[in-house]
Amino acid sequence: MPQLGESIAEANIVNFLVKPGDMVTADQDLIEVETNKATMNVSSPGSGRVEKLIAKQNESYAVGAVLGYLEVSEEQARRLGINSDSPAPAAAEKPSEEN
Fold first, then answer.
1. Chain-centre distance of CA 50, in angstroms?
2. Is 52 helix (H, G, I), strand (E, B) or coil?
3. 48-53 and 23-24 as β-strands: parallel, antiparallel, unpaired?
4. Which CA distances in Å does 60 have to 1, 13, 35, 55, 80?
5. What is the rounded CA–CA span in Å between residue 1 and residue 44?
6. Helix extents (H) in the chain
7. What's the rounded Cα separation, in Å, for the pair 3 and 11?
8. Which of 1, 28, 88, 92 has the fewest Cβ atoms within 10 Å of its own Cβ atom?
9. What local confidence, expressed as pLDDT, does residue 78 receive?
10. CA neighbor of 95 nearest in space, from 41, 21, 26
11. In what helix (H) or strand (E) does residue 43 lie, and over which residues does it extend?
């Protein structure tokens, strides 16, 4: 779960806009979340294939929680500053073999 605002510590998953196996582009909306102030979307940190979504609809997650995984190319992983050999969170800050 990315930082959604200065005072926001968590958000509730409202809707998934993609499913495992979907190809996504950088900044594409992946998940719709709701805080006590607003509804907003979590976007992809990079381009790739949605590997797995581990968050559950209608559950609340703290900032920094892993919501899913994104499979990315080695080039994309380097651009995002992650190790392509180990999965990293998707839709949180960095994707991996995923976000």
1. 9
2. strand
3. antiparallel
4. 10, 6, 9, 9, 26
5. 11
6. 74-80
7. 10
8. 28
9. 81
10. 26
11. strand 39-43
Dist CA 14 CA 81 (whole Å): 29
* pLDDT confidence of residue 4: 64
Give the DSSP per-residue string, 53-66: E---TT-EEETT--
pLDDT of amino acid 10: 81
> What is the model's pLDDT at position 29?
94
Q: What is the model's pLDDT at position 58?
A: 94
Nearest 5°: CA angle at 91, between 87 and 92? 80
Which residue in 52, 47, 57 sits closest to 27, CA to CA?
47
Cα separation, 99 vs 54, whole angstroms: 10
What's the pLDDT at 62? 86
> What span, in angstroms and rounded, lies between the C-alpha atoms of 69 and 54?
8
